[in-house]
Amino acid sequence: MSQMTLLLVFIGAGLATFLIRLSFIAVEGRVRLPSWFRTALQFVPAAMLSALIAPDLLMRGGQVDIGPGNARLVAGLVAIVIAAKTRSIGWTIAGGMATLIAMTYLLNHALK
Questions:
Q1: pTM, whole model, 2 decimals?
Q2: How far apart are CA 99 and CA 92, in angstroms?
Q3: 10 Å Cβ neighbour count for 102?
């Protein structure tokens, strides 16, 4: 693929994304969206975040790994518990990262 083609693809994708987002902003005051649709829109950020994170937590080496040897899954579960208990983004990130670092160290060094 040539550099010009790649540039045109990036510009086209960016323009399409911009127009899709603009369409919701532009029609906000003019069109009354159904209540079920507005309710569903509230769940889009959580669904998108889950769709981005879940494969990274559940897959290792191209295969599903839900055992205790999956450091990312354990750290993700710890982060979920911390988030539920504290409702703090900072503590959630710190606890999840600390767990990931500790688990990675244990799995790669201490347990071998």
A1: 0.64
A2: 11
A3: 15
